[in-house]
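[agent] plan:
  1. take the single chain provided in the ticket
  2. run structure prediction with default settings
  3. attach structure tokens to the ticket
  4. add a short note for the reviewer (M.T.)
[agent] executing step 1
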Amino acid sequence: MLYKRPYILILAAVLLLATATAQSLPALAPPGATAGFYTRNLAIKKAFFIDFQLEWNRLGFFDLFKQAADQGGELSADDLQIASEVLNLDLVGREGLIAVYPSGDFFAIARPSADRVDTLIALLNKFMEKPEKRAGWLLERDDSEGLPVYLGHNGELLLAASEGALERFFNGERGLEVPIEGDLAYWAHAQPLWPMLEAQEQLPPELVRALKTFVSFAGALDIEDGGLFTRSRFALDPNQDPALAALFLPSTAAWPLGEQPRGVSAGSYVFDLAAFGDYVTQLAAGFGMEDLNLDLSAFGQHVAFVDAGSEDPQEALSNPLGNLLLVLETKDTLTAEVTLLTWLQSLAGFATPEGEGGFTVEATEVAGMPAKRLAVGMLGNLVLVTGEDRLYLATSERAAALLEASEKLADDPKFVKLAKLYLPEGYTGASYSNNRETLKQAAQMLPLMMMQTVDDPEVQAFTFEFADKLAQFLSFVAERVGSSVSYQETQGSTVEGSGFMEVAW
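[agent] step 2 finished; step 3 output follows
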């Protein structure tokens, strides 16, 4: 076996050299971005979407757009054809990156799919009128939008950048750090903007400290055999504004999600409403609004919601608030109820044209608990139910009926399956959605929603056909997706999130 070793060493050296020469795109980009978006491996992962692409093509969306373009749109059919050649996953098939900097500059670079890179470069060369060579790159300057933007390629990579970012790139300022891993990653850093914030002398110091409390957010998505995995990271600096940071960094566990009534989706979170009221009152006083007193001391730290969904598109259109059940923890239920009724009465005044509607209250009972049916101006009818240590606010009778039913989310086998796999103990927030049902409902409502405000006959015909095709596509997607679950946990001064959605590729 010794005779094979030289070949193994040669192969290892070749792979090492390839890794060194084919630098990742973040390693090429200038550092210090305040926001960015990065993709990788989409040339491989796009195979998961083949059936979705075939269905999209079968429904003829592209032909529909070409017909609309030929009938006098701003883009011609040829323009759309070119756009479809360029703006697809092959453009960033191996890698893609766009970064935005505090100066306002941007830097975008792509490593297309290996089998498409020559075609894309030939297309770019076709549209270059006065290209210039620079350090192995062929570049063209575009001043059509008022600010110079450079487009170009080096035979392998495509590039688009503002002048400032391009100069940094050629001056060797490289090495952008992507703060989170994933097939798709996105992030925003507030810290690079702090000098600009501090330079605004007219801003009160309290507001500056509040804004500097939010340090960064990053999210990522991975496409895998069973579905989509997501992760997020929300970082805060408690040293800036401890009271504000504490609102987003709870140490108490949320109500167990499975204890909520069974609906098509639900969420359970920790948010200290009393502390929030105190914070807003204090902040307002710093701006000279001493009269504002947001007293939420009667409320607790736990909130939840359940969506009952809708089986009737017409009913959904007539009810702008949907079929939601909001659950609020209370320390003093009677005071909390009076506070909430006062807000709703004030809201009714804003949502009611002069001489119409108003605010009415009718006593009733729901699930053995005292309740009130409320008419809140043009917002419609609500139901407020008073529990022992919580208030339930339902935006419809269907939502209120969730309290009458004995089933909990823990009785839903779809939820139980995902909860066992992906929900840890002690989360500070969690959500669940039966995506199949919500997409089916969306497919039923979409044509009605899109046709409501269209008067022109030609536009109406196009809108009807487009809405019908889109509804069919949503119905197709609904048959391929399942349920999803996500959660958040407090880790020091960071909120870590994770989630999963079932997809039958």
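[agent] step 4 note for reviewer: Residues 1-21 have pLDDT under 50 and may be disordered.
[agent] ticket updated
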